[in-house]
Design a protein that fits this description.
The chain is built from nine helices and twelve strands. By secondary structure, it is an alpha+beta fold. Bound molecules: (3R)-3-hydroxy-3-methyl-5-(phosphonooxy)pentanoic acid.
Length: about 325
């Protein structure tokens, strides 16, 4: 064991959430910021896991689990000694911290797990491919999501835009040739993905003839959007985002707070805007025609009450900034 660090991006679903649970595609991109970070330090005594943002220190091989937030890390450590070589129970400390708001659709669960997995593997000389990391993080995701589609762990561990299709190898999507300017804003309202997803499942079970075509249409926006994304065609992608939002409203996962931010973004010149992630709170994303409009949209979102609003420039490189 030696000291090591690991990091993982957050993620944004541009098109296709919820439909992806039913085997349709979703288009998702990693965001370099906000992000999660983990570090392994060598220390005397029992192994410890510190969740810095929660002010929690857990002694894994001794303590029971006192906090819900520890469960994913307990699951992570179970990978060692089964899928991965066993860890010593003494002599190290794992510190995890993240700037990704929890329960807002930016993939904080998958990202913190991926950062911690990466630090632990590096510290122990274990080489994992992005695909293997993704598979292990997927197991941890089940704690948050119940039956996750796998889009979060895939886009976060592969760290590349993907067109994700449950059950098939993810298709890597080329980064935009012409930069896209995306504004992300958080309603500040936390959602539980598992509850929003099971709400859709219950409504779909009651009225499959209504829900199945809506869900299929959501998937189509993602399939069409991948190409528009790579070409950097903002007007085309914006239209698909608006269409996707309308469909998400129809399956009952939008909310007045999201719609207030979406209206503010459109009013400030967005080419398209939609919720991102599970919905019923959490984040929305808006597509701006240029950097100046992106700054104006970000301001309009802050004025409309967003808890957080930041601009991502997505071209052959990607950069996210809070102001
Ligand atoms: O809000 P998040 O980051 O948990 O995203 C959920 C995305 C869904 O499509 C609604 C669920 C899933 O498992 O893909």
């Amino acid at each position: 064991m030696e000291s090591a660090t690991g990091a993982a991006p957050s993620k944004l679903i541009l098109l296709g959430e919820h439909a992806v649970v039913y085997g349709h595609p979703a288009l998702a991109v990693p965001l370099s910021s906000p992000s999660a970070h983990a570090g392994i330090a060598l220390q005397a005594g029992k192994a410890q896991v510190e969740l810095v943002d929660f002010d929690i220190v857990w002694t894994p091989f001794t303590d029971g689990m006192t906090a819900e937030v520890i469960r994913p890390f307990a699951r992570l450590l179970r990978h060692f000694g089964s899928e991965l070589p066993e860890l010593p129970d003494r002599g190290w400390r794992l510190e995890v911290r993240s700037t990704i708001p929890i329960g807002c659709g930016l993939g904080s669960g998958a990202s913190t797990a991926a950062a911690a997995l990466s630090a632990l593997c590096r510290a122990n000389g274990i080489g994992l491919s992005p695909e293997e990391s993704s598979r292990l993080v997927f197991e941890i995701e089940k704690i948050h999501h119940g039956t996750p589609s796998g889009v979060d762990n895939t886009v976060i561990c592969l760290n590349t835009p993907v067109l994700f299709h449950k059950g098939s190898p993810p298709l890597q999507v080329a980064r935009p040739k012409v930069p896209l300017h995306i504004v992300v804003a958080d309603t500040g309202i936390r959602h539980k993905t598992i509850e929003v997803v099971s709400g859709v499942a219950a409504r779909r079970a009651r009225e499959p003839q209504v829900y199945d075509p809506l869900i299929a249409a959501i998937g189509e926006t993602a399939a069409q959007g991948a190409d528009a994304f790579s070409r950097g065609s903002a007007p085309e992608l914006g239209k698909l985002m608006d269409k996707n939002q309308g469909l998400l409203e129809m399956i009952g996962v939008s909310s007045p707070e999201l719609e207030k931010l979406i209206a503010a973004a459109r009013g400030a010149g967005a080419l398209g805007a939609k919720l991102s992630g599970a919905g019923m709170g959490g984040c929305m994303a808006a597509l701006a025609p240029d950097p100046e409009s992106a700054a104006r949209i970000r301001e309009a979102l802050a004025k409309a009450g967003a808890a957080l609003a930041f601009v991502c420039m997505m071209g052959e490189e990607e950069r996210c900034a809070r102001s």
